[in-house]
Amino acid sequence: MDLLNTLVDKGLRRELPTREEALAVLATSDDDLLDVVAAAGKVRRQWFGRRVKLNYLVNLKSGLCPEDCSYCSQRLGSTAGILKYTWLKPDEASQAAAAGLAGGAKRVCLVASGRGPTDRDVDRVSDTIKAIKDQNEGVEVCACLGLLSDGQAERLREAGADAYNHNLNTSEGTYADITTTHTYADRVDTVQKAHAAGLSACSGLIAGMGESDEDLVDVVYALRELDPDSVPVNFLIPFEGTPLAKEWNLTPQRCLRILAMVRFVCPDVEVRIAGGREVHLRSMQPLALHLANSIFLGDYLTSEGQAGKADLEMIADAGFEVEGADQVTLPEHRAAAAGGGCGSHESAGCESPESAGCGGHQSAGCGSHEGGGVCGTAAAAPVSTEPRTDLVAVRRRGAGTDLAPNA
Length: 407
Ligand code: SF4
Fold this sequence. Notes:
The protein has one domain (18-391): TIM Barrel. It is 35% helix and 11% strand. It has helices spanning 2-13, 19-26, 33-48, 90-102, 119-135, 152-158, 175-178, 184-196, 213-226, 252-265, 277-281, 285-288, 308-317, 332-336, and strands spanning 51-61, 107-112, 140-144, 163-165, 200-202, 205-207, 230-235, 270-273, 294-296, 321-322. It catalyses: (4R,5S)-dethiobiotin + (sulfur carrier)-SH + 2 reduced [2Fe-2S]-[ferredoxin] + 2 S-adenosyl-L-methionine = (sulfur carrier)-H + biotin + 2 5'-deoxyadenosine + 2 L-methionine + 2 oxidized [2Fe-2S]-[ferredoxin].
């Protein structure tokens, strides 16, 4: 297939596909899906081999957010029955992190709900970062605290943070439909602040919020422009009690096409499957490992993931290997260019949790509109998007509870 051959060649050369080529990936038919996965898998293996990086979320502060991100179970007015608690103490966060690291994770993602941190919050998180780094040699720490004010990224970097996550989530054109309390430009600004402070930037998207294929391509091209080191791809978890509760738009096949498109547009970047993996990819999760080189281990911010042991078994059964703490995530050309963002930088990264809330956290869902046909052309594939509310489980263990975490 000419389209896929072209995309593989471009991916191996780190050359940007055209928008038409990216759109054509989203429009492929289910008959062509394995060919799409195989092609994007070649690009994935060129830059990341068969390694899978495991990341572990610690929700430092859950719920009670004054922002109105409509995908988020922690938003203002959410009636989702999620855990609500204020800041974990550094030793509590460190204990939660240790469980994830013992389970095989090499990065800990510290997330807090809210518009953005106060300077006192940055102090708190700095203490937490130090506690985690003191107790866990070699761990990578990513902070995800929402919109940053001047100087805060530098302070987090000084405290030992390796990375900062803040997702763009959706296209500039549709951002105001999703959130009214801050802007797309605010989000871009925070990613740029993280970059400028020498933090590895992590910024991604949420699919499944009712956006068009063009919106998805727009946000992924905007991310490539921002050049983060890691791009988390969330698939919307339509939480009851949030405005997007009825947005069950995704199929496993759609999710795979989205991940393939992201891989072709950001070939040498850590592509991470974030929230919604179990809910939307379901039994197709192993195929997604041929596209993404990174996942979250265990639970998400406000929802439960599959057992950590099942994650490890899936990786082994699919013929992949968990990336060790002594292995560098990013390709040499990126790792050598530390301090940059996506196209450069070192081996840090950052994610984008899922149903959490803050600045960018949440849990995302998965696209909608389908498309069909074969590469480039395509005819609509059948859509089976029965709500799978049975697969959405509010997190009731780990951070903020007395129960052991899933790791
Ligand atoms: S995504 Fe973040 S900022 Fe938006 S409502 Fe959720 S916690 Fe608040």
